[in-house]
Amino acid sequence: MEYEEFEKNTLHEIKSSQIIAISNVCFYLIISATKLIVGHFVNSTALKADGYNGATDTLSYLIIFLGLMFAKRPVDQFHKFGYAKAETLATLMTSVLISETGMWVIYKGICALVNRNDSRPDFLAAFVGIGIGLLTFIVFLINRHIATRINSKPLLASSHDQRLDAITSVTTGIVIVISSLGFAWLDKLNAIIIGVFMMRTAYKIFDSSAFRLIDGFDKGKLNTFKLEISKFKKIKKIQQIQGREYENDIYLSVVVQVNHKMTVEETTKLRDNIQEDLQKKYGIFKLDMQFSTK
Protein backbone atom coordinates (compact mmCIF):
# COMPACT_ATOMS: atom_id res chain seq x y z
CA MET A 1 0.00 0.00 0.00
CA GLU A 2 1.38 3.41 -1.00
CA TYR A 3 1.82 6.32 1.40
CA GLU A 4 -1.05 8.26 -0.23
CA GLU A 5 -3.44 5.35 0.47
CA PHE A 6 -2.34 5.19 4.10
CA GLU A 7 -2.81 8.95 4.48
CA LYS A 8 -6.26 8.81 2.86
CA ASN A 9 -7.37 5.96 5.16
CA THR A 10 -6.01 7.77 8.23
CA LEU A 11 -7.88 10.98 7.37
CA HIS A 12 -11.10 8.99 6.84
CA GLU A 13 -10.68 7.35 10.27
CA ILE A 14 -10.04 10.72 11.92
CA LYS A 15 -13.16 12.25 10.30
CA SER A 16 -15.27 9.27 11.42
CA SER A 17 -13.87 9.63 14.94
CA GLN A 18 -14.75 13.32 14.94
CA ILE A 19 -18.37 12.60 14.03
CA ILE A 20 -18.66 10.04 16.85
CA ALA A 21 -16.94 12.36 19.33
CA ILE A 22 -19.22 15.34 18.64
CA SER A 23 -22.30 13.06 18.77
CA ASN A 24 -21.20 11.88 22.21
CA VAL A 25 -20.68 15.47 23.34
CA CYS A 26 -24.34 16.18 22.57
CA PHE A 27 -25.51 12.92 24.17
CA TYR A 28 -23.59 13.45 27.42
CA LEU A 29 -24.58 17.11 27.58
CA ILE A 30 -28.26 16.11 27.60
CA ILE A 31 -28.04 13.21 30.06
CA SER A 32 -25.67 14.97 32.50
CA ALA A 33 -27.93 18.04 32.58
CA THR A 34 -30.94 15.77 33.20
CA LYS A 35 -29.19 13.98 36.09
CA LEU A 36 -27.99 17.21 37.71
CA ILE A 37 -31.40 18.92 37.49
CA VAL A 38 -33.39 15.90 38.72
CA GLY A 39 -30.77 15.11 41.39
CA HIS A 40 -31.01 18.67 42.73
CA PHE A 41 -34.80 18.72 42.96
CA VAL A 42 -35.20 15.22 44.46
CA ASN A 43 -32.24 15.48 46.90
CA SER A 44 -30.16 12.62 45.49
CA THR A 45 -26.41 13.02 46.15
CA ALA A 46 -25.64 9.89 44.09
CA LEU A 47 -27.60 11.07 41.04
CA LYS A 48 -25.88 14.47 41.18
CA ALA A 49 -22.50 12.71 41.43
CA ASP A 50 -23.45 10.64 38.40
CA GLY A 51 -24.42 13.86 36.65
CA TYR A 52 -21.02 15.40 37.36
CA ASN A 53 -19.49 12.21 35.98
CA GLY A 54 -21.50 12.72 32.79
CA ALA A 55 -20.50 16.39 32.61
CA THR A 56 -16.86 15.30 32.78
CA ASP A 57 -17.45 12.89 29.91
CA THR A 58 -18.97 15.76 27.91
CA LEU A 59 -15.76 17.76 28.30
CA SER A 60 -13.69 14.62 27.64
CA TYR A 61 -15.31 13.99 24.28
CA LEU A 62 -14.98 17.69 23.43
CA ILE A 63 -11.24 17.51 24.15
CA ILE A 64 -10.97 14.37 22.01
CA PHE A 65 -12.84 16.14 19.20
CA LEU A 66 -10.38 19.06 19.33
CA GLY A 67 -7.45 16.62 19.43
CA LEU A 68 -8.78 14.84 16.34
CA MET A 69 -9.12 18.17 14.54
CA PHE A 70 -5.47 18.95 15.31
CA ALA A 71 -4.39 15.44 14.26
CA LYS A 72 -5.73 16.06 10.73
CA ARG A 73 -2.98 18.59 10.04
CA PRO A 74 -0.65 17.39 7.27
CA VAL A 75 3.02 16.48 7.68
CA ASP A 76 5.34 19.50 7.64
CA GLN A 77 9.08 20.16 7.92
CA PHE A 78 8.91 20.30 11.72
CA HIS A 79 6.62 17.24 12.17
CA LYS A 80 7.88 14.50 9.88
CA PHE A 81 5.52 11.97 11.49
CA GLY A 82 2.52 14.28 11.34
CA TYR A 83 0.29 15.36 14.24
CA ALA A 84 -1.27 12.01 15.19
CA LYS A 85 0.14 12.32 18.74
CA ALA A 86 -2.50 15.00 19.33
CA GLU A 87 -5.05 12.18 19.70
CA THR A 88 -3.00 10.56 22.47
CA LEU A 89 -2.45 13.91 24.16
CA ALA A 90 -6.21 14.56 24.12
CA THR A 91 -6.82 11.17 25.75
CA LEU A 92 -4.24 11.99 28.43
CA MET A 93 -5.95 15.30 29.17
CA THR A 94 -9.32 13.59 29.60
CA SER A 95 -7.83 11.26 32.24
CA VAL A 96 -6.64 14.26 34.26
CA LEU A 97 -10.09 15.85 33.99
CA ILE A 98 -11.85 12.65 35.11
CA SER A 99 -9.42 12.31 38.03
CA GLU A 100 -10.07 15.85 39.29
CA THR A 101 -13.84 15.45 39.08
CA GLY A 102 -13.61 12.06 40.80
CA MET A 103 -11.77 13.57 43.77
CA TRP A 104 -14.37 16.34 44.02
CA VAL A 105 -17.26 13.84 43.92
CA ILE A 106 -15.62 11.76 46.69
CA TYR A 107 -15.17 14.91 48.79
CA LYS A 108 -18.82 15.98 48.39
CA GLY A 109 -20.03 12.45 49.18
CA ILE A 110 -17.96 12.27 52.37
CA CYS A 111 -19.22 15.71 53.46
CA ALA A 112 -22.85 14.64 52.98
CA LEU A 113 -22.23 11.40 54.88
CA VAL A 114 -20.40 13.07 57.79
CA ASN A 115 -23.00 15.85 58.10
CA ARG A 116 -25.69 13.15 58.37
CA ASN A 117 -27.97 14.61 55.74
CA ASP A 118 -30.95 12.25 56.09
CA SER A 119 -33.00 13.61 53.20
CA ARG A 120 -34.32 10.70 51.12
CA PRO A 121 -34.23 10.84 47.33
CA ASP A 122 -37.45 10.56 45.33
CA PHE A 123 -38.32 7.51 43.20
CA LEU A 124 -38.11 9.77 40.14
CA ALA A 125 -34.33 9.81 40.59
CA ALA A 126 -34.30 6.01 40.40
CA PHE A 127 -36.27 5.95 37.15
CA VAL A 128 -33.96 8.58 35.64
CA GLY A 129 -30.82 6.71 36.73
CA ILE A 130 -31.93 3.30 35.43
CA GLY A 131 -33.42 4.68 32.20
CA ILE A 132 -30.34 6.71 31.31
CA GLY A 133 -28.11 3.77 32.27
CA LEU A 134 -29.83 1.48 29.77
CA LEU A 135 -29.69 4.17 27.07
CA THR A 136 -25.98 4.75 27.76
CA PHE A 137 -25.27 1.02 27.42
CA ILE A 138 -26.88 1.00 23.95
CA VAL A 139 -24.76 4.01 22.93
CA PHE A 140 -21.67 2.25 24.35
CA LEU A 141 -22.28 -0.80 22.13
CA ILE A 142 -22.61 1.42 19.06
CA ASN A 143 -19.49 3.44 19.91
CA ARG A 144 -17.40 0.34 20.65
CA HIS A 145 -18.40 -1.22 17.33
CA ILE A 146 -17.49 1.89 15.34
CA ALA A 147 -14.29 2.61 17.32
CA THR A 148 -13.12 -1.00 16.78
CA ARG A 149 -13.92 -0.84 13.06
CA ILE A 150 -11.95 2.38 12.49
CA ASN A 151 -9.33 1.44 15.14
CA SER A 152 -9.55 4.73 17.06
CA LYS A 153 -7.72 4.38 20.39
CA PRO A 154 -9.13 7.57 21.97
CA LEU A 155 -12.70 6.48 21.19
CA LEU A 156 -12.01 2.94 22.39
CA ALA A 157 -10.69 4.30 25.69
CA SER A 158 -13.73 6.55 26.04
CA SER A 159 -16.12 3.71 25.19
CA HIS A 160 -14.74 1.67 28.11
CA ASP A 161 -15.53 4.63 30.36
CA GLN A 162 -19.00 4.73 28.78
CA ARG A 163 -19.66 1.11 29.76
CA LEU A 164 -18.79 2.01 33.33
CA ASP A 165 -21.15 5.00 33.10
CA ALA A 166 -24.00 2.71 32.07
CA ILE A 167 -23.38 0.31 34.97
CA THR A 168 -22.99 3.21 37.39
CA SER A 169 -26.29 4.81 36.33
CA VAL A 170 -28.26 1.58 36.70
CA THR A 171 -26.61 0.85 40.07
CA THR A 172 -27.35 4.41 41.19
CA GLY A 173 -31.03 3.93 40.33
CA ILE A 174 -31.20 0.70 42.36
CA VAL A 175 -29.43 2.30 45.34
CA ILE A 176 -31.82 5.25 45.23
CA VAL A 177 -34.78 2.86 45.49
CA ILE A 178 -33.24 1.29 48.60
CA SER A 179 -32.36 4.75 50.02
CA SER A 180 -35.97 5.88 49.58
CA LEU A 181 -37.12 2.99 51.80
CA GLY A 182 -35.25 4.38 54.83
CA PHE A 183 -31.54 3.98 54.12
CA ALA A 184 -30.65 7.55 53.12
CA TRP A 185 -26.94 7.04 53.91
CA LEU A 186 -26.66 4.58 51.01
CA ASP A 187 -27.28 7.41 48.55
CA LYS A 188 -24.25 9.31 49.94
CA LEU A 189 -22.09 6.19 50.07
CA ASN A 190 -22.90 5.42 46.45
CA ALA A 191 -21.72 8.92 45.48
CA ILE A 192 -18.33 8.14 47.07
CA ILE A 193 -18.16 4.81 45.21
CA ILE A 194 -18.88 6.60 41.92
CA GLY A 195 -15.98 8.94 42.66
CA VAL A 196 -13.67 5.99 43.34
CA PHE A 197 -14.64 4.35 40.04
CA MET A 198 -13.97 7.63 38.24
CA MET A 199 -10.47 7.71 39.76
CA ARG A 200 -9.86 4.11 38.69
CA THR A 201 -10.98 4.84 35.13
CA ALA A 202 -8.80 7.97 35.02
CA TYR A 203 -5.74 5.97 36.11
CA LYS A 204 -6.26 3.29 33.44
CA ILE A 205 -6.68 5.87 30.66
CA PHE A 206 -3.68 7.88 31.92
CA ASP A 207 -1.46 4.81 32.13
CA SER A 208 -2.29 3.69 28.57
CA SER A 209 -2.02 7.13 26.91
CA ALA A 210 1.15 8.13 28.79
CA PHE A 211 2.80 4.85 27.70
CA ARG A 212 2.07 5.66 24.04
CA LEU A 213 2.97 9.33 24.40
CA ILE A 214 6.53 8.53 25.54
CA ASP A 215 6.89 6.04 22.65
CA GLY A 216 6.35 2.89 24.66
CA PHE A 217 5.82 -0.15 22.47
CA ASP A 218 4.35 -3.58 23.13
CA LYS A 219 7.17 -6.13 23.50
CA GLY A 220 4.90 -8.91 22.24
CA LYS A 221 4.30 -7.05 18.97
CA LEU A 222 8.04 -6.52 18.49
CA ASN A 223 8.64 -10.26 18.94
CA THR A 224 5.94 -11.00 16.36
CA PHE A 225 7.52 -8.62 13.84
CA LYS A 226 10.94 -10.08 14.59
CA LEU A 227 9.75 -13.62 13.87
CA GLU A 228 8.12 -12.48 10.64
CA ILE A 229 11.30 -10.78 9.40
CA SER A 230 13.38 -13.85 10.39
CA LYS A 231 11.38 -15.95 7.92
CA PHE A 232 13.26 -14.32 5.04
CA LYS A 233 16.20 -16.63 4.30
CA LYS A 234 18.64 -13.88 3.36
CA ILE A 235 18.40 -12.42 6.89
CA LYS A 236 21.17 -13.92 9.01
CA LYS A 237 20.37 -12.12 12.23
CA ILE A 238 18.23 -9.28 13.53
CA GLN A 239 20.61 -7.09 15.50
CA GLN A 240 18.13 -4.44 16.58
CA ILE A 241 14.41 -3.73 16.25
CA GLN A 242 12.46 -0.74 17.55
CA GLY A 243 8.84 0.27 17.17
CA ARG A 244 6.95 3.52 17.43
CA GLU A 245 3.18 4.06 17.33
CA TYR A 246 1.37 7.12 16.06
CA GLU A 247 -2.20 6.12 16.90
CA ASN A 248 -3.10 3.68 14.09
CA ASP A 249 0.27 3.87 12.33
CA ILE A 250 3.26 1.72 13.28
CA TYR A 251 6.83 2.67 12.35
CA LEU A 252 9.57 0.03 12.54
CA SER A 253 13.30 0.62 12.65
CA VAL A 254 15.35 -2.56 12.09
CA VAL A 255 19.06 -3.41 11.77
CA VAL A 256 19.68 -6.80 10.16
CA GLN A 257 22.79 -8.80 9.31
CA VAL A 258 23.12 -10.13 5.75
CA ASN A 259 25.78 -11.75 3.60
CA HIS A 260 28.54 -9.32 2.65
CA LYS A 261 28.25 -10.39 -1.01
CA MET A 262 24.73 -8.96 -1.39
CA THR A 263 24.49 -6.01 -3.79
CA VAL A 264 22.68 -2.73 -3.14
CA GLU A 265 19.98 -3.80 -5.59
CA GLU A 266 19.46 -7.09 -3.72
CA THR A 267 19.23 -5.41 -0.30
CA THR A 268 16.77 -2.85 -1.67
CA LYS A 269 14.58 -5.60 -3.11
CA LEU A 270 14.79 -7.54 0.18
CA ARG A 271 13.71 -4.47 2.17
CA ASP A 272 10.79 -3.80 -0.19
CA ASN A 273 9.62 -7.42 0.08
CA ILE A 274 9.77 -7.35 3.87
CA GLN A 275 7.94 -4.02 4.04
CA GLU A 276 5.21 -5.28 1.70
CA ASP A 277 4.84 -8.44 3.81
CA LEU A 278 4.57 -6.49 7.08
CA GLN A 279 2.11 -4.02 5.59
CA LYS A 280 -0.21 -6.75 4.35
CA LYS A 281 -0.14 -8.81 7.55
CA TYR A 282 0.20 -6.19 10.28
CA GLY A 283 -0.52 -2.82 8.66
CA ILE A 284 3.00 -1.47 9.25
CA PHE A 285 3.02 2.12 8.01
CA LYS A 286 6.74 2.50 7.38
CA LEU A 287 9.84 0.29 7.67
CA ASP A 288 13.30 1.76 8.13
CA MET A 289 15.76 -1.08 7.52
CA GLN A 290 19.54 -0.88 7.75
CA PHE A 291 21.89 -3.65 6.70
CA SER A 292 25.04 -4.90 8.40
CA THR A 293 27.57 -7.54 7.29
CA LYS A 294 29.04 -8.16 10.77
TrEMBL record:
Domain Cation efflux protein cytoplasmic: 228-284
Pfam family, one: ZT_dimer
Residue span(s) of domain Cation efflux protein transmembrane: 25-213
MF GO annotations: monoatomic cation transmembrane transporter activity
Localisation per UniProt entry: Membrane
Keywords, sorted A to Z: Membrane, Transmembrane, Transmembrane helix, Transport
Main location per the UniProt record: membrane
Gene3D superfamilies per UniProt: Cation efflux protein transmembrane domain, Cation efflux protein, cytoplasmic domain
Cellular component, GO, one term: membrane
Chain segments annotated as transmembrane: 21-42, 54-71, 83-107, 123-143, 164-183
Membrane topology: Multi-pass membrane protein
Cleavable signal peptide: none
Family assignment from sequence similarity: Belongs to the cation diffusion facilitator (CDF) transporter (TC 2.A.4) family.
The name this protein goes by in its record: Cation efflux transporter
Lineage, broadest ranks: Bacteria, Bacillati, Bacillota, Bacilli, Lactobacillales
